Amino acid sequence: MAPSEPLPPASTAKGPPSGFGKGFVMDTWYFVALSRDVAPGSLKRHEVMGEPVLIGRTRASDGAAGTVFALRDICPHRAAPLSAGRIVDRPGEGQTVECPYHGWRFGTDGRCAAIPSLVEDQPGTTGRIRVRSWPVVESQGMVFVFMRSDPRDDTPPDHAPPVFPGIVGGEAKLVEAMDFDSHIDHAVVGLMDPAHGPYVHQQWWWRSEHSMHEKAKAFAPSELGFTMVRHAPSSNSRAYRILGGTPETEITFRLPGYRWEHIQVGPRQVLALTCLTPVTETRTRITQIFWSDHWVFGLARPFLRQGVRAFLKQDGGMVNLQNEGLRYDPSLIWIDDADRQARWYQQLKREWGRSRAEQRPFVNPIEPVTLRWNS
């Protein structure tokens, strides 16, 4: 590969479903919420890929916990948002979502259960009316929605949501989220960029351009992505020092947009998970979640929260600056080795699209390699 190579403009770059900065990775699981934020009997509107997605949970009954479901948040009658309604429990229907406008009721599978305005001798049409639903799974305290490429397809998903290591110590210790004015492709590439830190994140406790030196990290393919294999943190990464001991870290990326860092400090663990959820073509939600059984989280949580917020704001500010240039649809130059992970993301995204289109197993295009860069 040449030392530097222009990337075609988004409008002409190749790869399903479309070029870099356009389209989405489909037929896979996206994070939408923490389980603890989806209360029994609740209805909440989300937006994923420009679609209004209602995430709800039925009320607990007979000692069983309520079940999470996902429906298109539009009543097919007059387009009122179903999330503005309520969950009701009627004899013969079970728990349904009641539209606030005319009281139409829909099961958690999207099928219309009742139209109250129909009188007894009028022909029933409920059996033919349905709101679109999505497969939804709760796993490790998180809610994931399976976004299909074909809305008419109702076959079960052919793979499960990701399982993350190091989720310890009960509920998440720290959660921060922010929307970036960016397509998910640019957000992913910014997330895995190893060279921007000394310039964008200039905190005294992190690192600066004056402490830059050469890094060499080994990478290997992993499920739907790649992993920076376990290693001791770099000497200029000051934040790791508060953990004490001799920490070792492993960093993994997985389609469609998950990055996690699993830190081991003797018997203690820290998991820093970042979930990227495409809200629209030009907006991406970044959710950072931390779990740990390390004592430092009890003492340093306010400091850590401040640091995470600062990082998100700095990255968001840089995204806004980048948008000033991207609106002219320029060609982009990516270099080795600092931009190799960004190229891998493109290869993974293309291979996922091709494998789905050709109805064959996904073949990870990543090969083991050691990358070197200054940061």
3D architecture notes:
The chain has 375 residues and is an alpha+beta fold. The protein folds into two domains: 28-147, 3-layer Sandwich (Rieske Iron-sulfur Protein), CATH 2.102.10; 174-374, Naphthalene 1,2-dioxygenase Alpha Subunit, Chain A, domain 1 (Alpha-Beta Complex). The chain is 17% helix and 33% strand. The chain contains four helices and 20 strands. It has an eight-stranded antiparallel β-sheet, with helices on one face. Strands 6-7-8-9 form a four-stranded antiparallel β-sheet, with no helix packed on it. The longest helix has 31 residues, at 296-326. The radius of gyration is 23 Å and the shape is globular. The model is unreliable at 1-17 (pLDDT under 50).
Blueprint (SSEs and pairs):
Elements: E1 4-7, E2 28-34, E3 43-48, E4 51-57, E5 68-72, E6 86-90, E7 94-98, E8 105-106, E9 112-114, E10 136-139, E11 142-147, E12 174-180, H1 184-192, H2 197-200, E13 214-222, E14 225-231, E15 248-254, E16 258-265, E17 268-280, E18 283-292, H3 296-326, E19 332-335, H4 340-357, E20 369-374
Antiparallel strand pairs: 1-19, 2-11, 3-4, 4-5, 6-7, 7-8, 8-9, 10-11, 12-18, 13-14, 13-20, 14-15, 15-16, 16-17, 17-18
Organism: Brevundimonas variabilis
InterPro entries: Cholesterol_7-desaturase, Rieske_2Fe-2S, Rieske_2Fe-2S_sf, VanA_C_cat
Protein name: Phenylpropionate dioxygenase-like ring-hydroxylating dioxygenase large terminal subunit
